[in-house]
Design a protein that fits this description.
The chain is an alpha/beta fold and about 230 residues long. It has eight helices and twelve strands.
């Protein structure tokens, strides 16, 4: 079984050595870089399974690195755990709002760091399994692995965006999602799609689903949901 890979981004050599030593002992494959620019290059080339990202970096800082990675659909899925100094509460909040998954405050215990890393990776595996699971509701079968939708046993031809939209809503029946949440989930955070474009996609999807299109309900002033 391949070891999970972790990229450590920090400009302090002693921190890099400490983190790399403890991660390697725990069975992870690690690589280290000392700048935001280098981190972006590495992640865009071969995305790791997780990034440990110091916020206080020279040049492109950690918040900007996080923002750029999370707005790119190719790297948005990579979990980010921030390394922060005490008193950086505002930066922690900003990082979490940008899509970071967790944070560890310096100085930190290696045991705490490993526990946070393992917890984030477990959540990622759980989410991937959920994404891959076949859904069945109201005569509709959605198979993400085959990118296939069956309606009463008959295949329905959907575009990539229509499929992602249907799958996103159907995973949480009854939950209301805003248009912005739908844009972020379907096309990647920061993708230049307007609210009106979401409405157009919903209209097209409903048409292809025929009478079952009514399962996608409009919640006025908020967004859309899949009927429970």
């Amino acid at each position: 079984m391949a070891r999970e890979t972790i990229l450590v981004v920090d400009d302090e050599e002693d921190i890099l050595e400490l983190v790399q030593y403890n991660l390697s002992r725990a069975g992870f494959k690690t690589s280290c870089v000392t700048s935001g620019e280098e981190a972006l290059r590495v992640v865009r080339g071969t995305p790791p399974d997780l990034i440990l990202l110091d916020l206080m970096l020279p040049g492109v800082d950690g918040l900007e690195v996080c923002r750029l990675l999370k707005r790119d659909p190719k790297t948005a899925h990579v979990p980010v755990v921030m390394l922060t100094a005490k008193g950086e509460e505002a930066d922690v909040v900003a990082g979490l709002e940008l899509g970071a998954d967790d944070y560890v405050t310096k100085p930190f215990s290696p045991r705490v760091l490993l526990a946070r890393v393992k917890a984030v990776l477990r959540r990622r595996v759980s989410a991937e399994q959920e994404d891959a699971a076949t859904l069945q509701a109201h005569g509709i079968v959605i198979n993400p692995q085959r990118h296939e939708v069956l309606l009463e046993g008959e295949p329905v031809t959907l575009t990539y965006t229509e499929f992602r939209l249907l799958h996103y809503l159907a995973r949480r029946p009854g939950w209301v999602f805003t248009r912005q949440q739908i844009i972020d989930a379907v096309r990647g955070e920061g993708y230049p799609v307007t609210d009106r474009a979401v409405d157009v996609q919903v209209v097209g999807l409903r048409k292809k689903l025929g009478t079952s299109g009514r399962l996608i309900e409009t919640v006025r002033g908020v967004g859309y949901r899949f009927r429970e």
